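Page 37, continued from 36.
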């Protein structure tokens, strides 16, 4: 479950402009499904059948990773877990290797496909980024393994350090940032930026912050930039982030788990395309679909909508299979998911 921030943590948190009336808040008013309605939501999920899962196995690729990180490449490992190569640095986002995203090993959303690489086969990471503390983005078992077997820092929004400390992560491995704060590791700069979401691993909400991230590395004209959206609803603030931190070689943005009932805190594919344009991105990598069934749309609905929207608006989209590494010069565009969804089960 993790841990709520301690009194010491709260003294730092309370200075944040995002902290108001005892919790973190979005800058725009944002409605979230009330905890009192979660029982009816669970009943709806039970009734919807298997439309949110593939009918046939998802094709995976065992990543062919170089010995050293390249100037620019990305490997989507499923959901919001992406291995970035930025100017020779390895950065891993929202690493989740567990089979379920839940406090229980037997109950909760289960993977629709395995992770295409073992944790032991990861390169030596320069940093791990966490967008927020929901189970599908912050996985205790994965953090435990990475802490024991790697030496990289774990860079998180304010308050999430409390979870990490309760799991035994050493203080000198944890970097906590507020929106628009940065940390440098040589020429690698990681900047915590605004998102429109919420947090909580139990019934207590919004005691830790959520964020998007800017990953920048390299020097001068060779500097590379990636925008990682994590999990967010649409906000006009993305325009300002593009002006301040862009342009971006790559945007990594969520397209799945959308629903009218929580549209403020989960963007749909059309809004993801708008975000890509807002932040001035060159290439768009869609995430947060295909791996966990978290909403009421069909398994392939997000990517089909995205392809149509991207074509209409003239943006370049990378469509890798899970585990498929790509570069700007070799962008995957095949519609590989249609075979897995071909006989998609009806509700």
């Amino acid at each position: 479950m993790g841990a709520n921030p301690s009194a010491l943590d709260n003294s730092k948190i309370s200075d944040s402009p995002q902290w108001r009336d005892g919790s973190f808040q979005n800058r725009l008013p944002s409605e979230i499904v009330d905890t009192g309605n979660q029982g009816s939501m669970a009943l709806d999920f039970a009734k919807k059948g298997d439309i949110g899962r593939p009918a046939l196995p998802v094709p995976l690729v065992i990543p062919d990773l170089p010995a050293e990180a390249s100037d620019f490449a990305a490997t989507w490992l499923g959901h919001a877990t992406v291995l970035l190569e930025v100017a020779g640095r390895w950065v891993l986002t929202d690493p989740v290797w567990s089979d379920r995203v839940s406090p229980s090993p037997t109950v909760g959303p289960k993977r629709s496909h395995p992770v295409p690489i073992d944790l032991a086969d990861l390169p030596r990471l320069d940093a791990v980024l966490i967008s927020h503390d929901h189970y599908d983005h912050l996985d205790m078992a994965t953090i435990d393994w990475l802490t024991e077997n790697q030496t990289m820092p774990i860079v998180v929004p304010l308050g999430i350090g409390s979870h990490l400390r309760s799991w035994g992560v050493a203080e000198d491995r944890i970097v906590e940032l507020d929106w628009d704060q940065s940390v440098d590791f040589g020429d690698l700069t990681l900047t915590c930026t605004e998102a429109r979401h919420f947090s909580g691993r139990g019934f207590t909400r919004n005691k830790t912050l959520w964020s998007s991230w800017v990953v920048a590395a390299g020097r001068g004209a060779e500097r590379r930039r990636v925008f990682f959206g994590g999990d967010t609803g649409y906000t006009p603030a993305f325009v300002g982030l593009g002006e301040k931190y862009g342009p971006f070689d790559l945007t990594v943005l969520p397209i799945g788990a959308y629903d009218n009932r929580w549209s403020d805190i989960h963007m749909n594919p059309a809004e993801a395309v708008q975000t890509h344009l807002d932040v001035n991105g060159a290439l768009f990598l869609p995430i947060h679909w295909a791996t966990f069934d978290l909403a009421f749309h069909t398994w392939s609905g997000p990517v089909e909508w995205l392809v149509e929207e991207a074509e209409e608006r003239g943006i370049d989209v990378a469509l890798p299979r899970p585990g498929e590494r790509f570069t700007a010069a070799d962008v995957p565009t095949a519609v590989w998911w249609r075979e897995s969804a071909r006989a998609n089960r009806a509700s």
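The radius of gyration is 19 Å. Flag for discussion at group meeting. Residues 301-313 form the longest helix (13 residues).
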